[in-house]
Amino acid sequence: MTPLSRRVLATTALAALLVGCGGGQGDDASRTARHAAAAPSSHASANSVPPLERSVPVGLRIPAIGVDTPVMRLGLAADGTVEVPPVTDDDRAGWYRHSPTPGQVGPAVVLGHVTVGTHGDGVFRHLARLHRGDRIEARLENGTAAEFRVTAVRTVAKADFPTDDVYGDVDRPELRLITCGGPRVGEEYRDNVIAFAELASTSPAPA
């Protein structure tokens, strides 16, 4: 990912997560995003699975929490924030198209709702129940399946969103699933739930 892409991702994605889930972006969140853009993280790779070529995700399965969803593409809204999936009764996850695709080197970012207004539960309603080692399968447009294993699940206050950990540079294929969580007041949630995962295996596209 280029430095410019990284800055856009860090700043706009954080804004979308705070606003799209019903919260507001305060000064503390803005400072966190600027800090992450200036000083992206780098983690040593212990994963021997070769990265994949870029291919757009079209589906996501998380057996441990009963998720099997199509994946839509998310870009930027008119106000410069990342789009979020529409609030509908057939709620889907959304991949931010300016992040790596699942299996490429870097953090692929997928967003989903925890609730969808009057429609009830969102696609990531049970994201906080994931545990280390749980499997996440991303189905890609070219027919490849990229299997990830959860390495951590964190619930964090939106005001303390760990932008550097989520969007900073990594030297291996990783995945971030993000939704809202914590106490709810009206239509707003206090926290974000973030599942971190790393590539564990791939299945090649059929010949």
Automatic annotation (TrEMBL):
SUPFAM superfamilies: Sortase. Signal peptide: none annotated. The keyword Endoplasmic reticulum does not apply. The keyword Hydrolase applies. Keywords: Hydrolase. InterPro entries: Sortase, Sortase_dom-sf, Sortase_F. NCBIfam families: class_F_sortase (NF033748). This is Class F sortase.
